[in-house]
Amino acid sequence: MDEQLHLSEKEFSLFCDIATSFHTIRDMDEMLRDIFRKITSIFDIEGASIALHDPENKEFYFIQTVEEVDGQKQLRTKSLRFADHQGIAGWVMEKNRTAVIDDVSVDGRFFNGIDAKEDFLTKSMICVPLRTRKGFQGVLYALNKKNGTFTEREKKILEVLSGTIAVSLENARLYGELKDHVHSLEREKRRLEDQVRSGSGFNEIIGTSRAMRRMFDLLEKVIDTPTTVLIQGETGTGKELIAKVIHYNGPLKDKAFVAENCGALPDNLLESELFGHVKGAFTGAISNKKGLFEMADGGTIFLDEVGEMSLHMQVKLLRVLQEGQFRPVGSTQTRQVDVRLIASTNRDLTQEVKNGNFREDLFYRINVFQITPPPLRERKEDILKLASHFLEKYAKKIGRPCPQIAPYTLDLLMRFDWPGNVRELENEMERALTMAGGEQILSEEFLSDKIRTLADDFGKDDFEKTSGRLKDVVQKVECRMIKEALEAAGGNRSQAAKSLGLSRQGLLNKVTAYRIQV
């Protein structure tokens, strides 16, 4: 190194930090924070920043800056963009030379459009080109020397640093592009796997109760249409499964089906996930990314828990549904898409509208055709089939024989209210199978405490006297449920039949068959 450029301890530490940034490309934010803070301290300046070049749009965009505010150095993330022929950065790119300016107010190259948008006044600067073997990456700024003017030594130090910084930024960009590509491949793999799994149709939804038959009738009517569907039901009732059945049995079955849980991400991440972003839209946005709406173009997008969306995101969703247009984060251009929307929520959106938590115009836009999957407590006659299905599923998965459900075990399953619905029953059966080991009969001792406590109120004696045949068990459970329903309805047969999901005549037939005294 030039003998005129002997490094102080602080300067040497700065060089070491930037050199090690090669190994920290997974956290570019942290790398830039450390570099900028040391530059501002060592050079005794008010701020440092980097503007990267976007050759596709012929623009520069800022990614991060450290500026001194009230004596405190603060990190700011800028999303500002300006044309690449403007300002000192444009001159540096064109000339491939460092610019040192002690007073920007008398330099005709200076573009003050950035200062006008930010609470920062640029007085002096060094602007250094960032280049690698692949070409021009952007510029590094050192802003506002506090005492005196920038020196030739400081210019040389920044020029030496710029090469390492440029390579580190390029490595981070390549790593980000690779990560985004892998993420896209994983999403496409999940979509194809869902398509294979969901291709069989209605038999994926288990249930023969009257409530389920009503829901199947609704599904039949909407499947062959592009109508927007709102699935409004309790957690665990299989809303995403219903959405897949609608998509994979309709005219869009060969198109994309993409899903997103709107309650799982904060606003900024959800907006990027749904609408995508352009390079430089925010720190870490080192490449363009397609959003789910663009990926679903021509197919179906399923927005789970849409009731969890903030009012800010609701406005953006409404625009897509009304006009078929959206704008990626950080972009000035709109994209056009044609997608079918299926939304779901476990909230009462009518009440949410009244409470001011959900936009009324968006509610009417998504509530075109509503499907309400019944909670498990309203279709208890499906419990035996569901429980048997889940036992077979997990027995096959772990390589164990599938046990039979003991009569008293079934009675306890029927008595439980299942606040978590089908998902809770599935988890219970997986746990019970694990607890049972290799037992051939699934007795009540293998159930969780929350269900076994029901045995404290209802004895086991009657069940021990009952034949273990399925028909006998089902008849006994039906008889008990009918008696309880009639008692709760005060003997009103029509009301009892409705609560059981039966027709009035169907209830009368069972009352006669079981010789129930009313």
As for the number of domains, it is 3
Helix proportion range = 40-55%
Rg calc: 33 Å
Query: How many angstroms separate the termini?
Result: 103 Å
Q: So how many helices?
A: 20
How would you name the oligomeric state of the polypeptide chains in this document?
single chain
For the sheet with most strands, the description reads: 7 strands, antiparallel
The class by helix and strand makeup works out as alpha/beta
User: Remind me, CATH topology of the largest domain?
Assistant: Beta-Lactamase
Which CATH first-tier class of the largest domain would you pick?
A: Alpha Beta
Number of DSSP strand runs: 16
Percent strand equals: 15-25%
**Name given to the CATH architecture of the largest domain:** 2-Layer Sandwich
Question: What overall form do the CA principal axes indicate?
Answer: elongated
CATH superfamily of the largest domain: GAF domain
Task: Describe the model.
The chain has 518 residues and is α/β, with parallel strands linked by helices. It has three domains: 173 residues, GAF domain (Beta-Lactamase), CATH 3.30.450; 173 residues, Rossmann fold, CATH 3.40.50.300; 138 residues, Helicase, Ruva Protein, domain 3. The protein contains 20 helices and 16 strands. Strand 11 and strand 12 form a beta hairpin. It starts with 8 loop residues before the first helix and ends with a helix.
Lay out the secondary structure.
Elements: H1 9-20, H2 28-43, E1 45-54, E2 59-69, E3 72-76, E4 81-83, H3 87-95, E5 99-101, H4 113-117, E6 125-132, E7 135-145, H5 152-198, H6 210-222, E8 229-232, H7 239-248, E9 257-261, H8 267-275, H9 292-295, E10 300-304, H10 311-323, E11 325-326, E12 335-336, E13 340-345, H11 349-354, H12 360-366, E14 369-371, H13 383-398, E15 404-405, H14 407-415, H15 421-436, E16 441-442, H16 449-452, H17 461-464, H18 470-488, H19 493-500, H20 504-514
Parallel strand pairs: 8-13, 8-14, 9-10, 10-13, 15-16
Antiparallel strand pairs: 1-2, 1-7, 2-3, 2-4, 5-6, 6-7, 11-12
Helix pairs in contact: 1-2, 10-12, 13-15, 18-19, 19-20
